[in-house]
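Page 47, continued from p. 46.
Same chain as before, 79 aa.
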Amino acid sequence: MFFIESEGTGIHHAPLAIEAPALAYHVDRDTGERRLVVVIQGEQVDEREVAGVRYPGGGNGLCTLQELEFVREENRNTA
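Result:
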């Protein structure tokens, strides 16, 4: 999980209406490589939608929601 310090910064953030945990592929925009991830968190940060992910082999990551291809598309947005 990640934390965004917003108090006194002018940054607006709010949770995204996504189902978590959810399986997705993180797609590298430069190489097209797809890595399986577990999405554990989603936040709206100003105009960007970001997601916290865990890799099955270990480790955490952060990416934009647009870089993810959800295995079950209904997990993308439950609103």
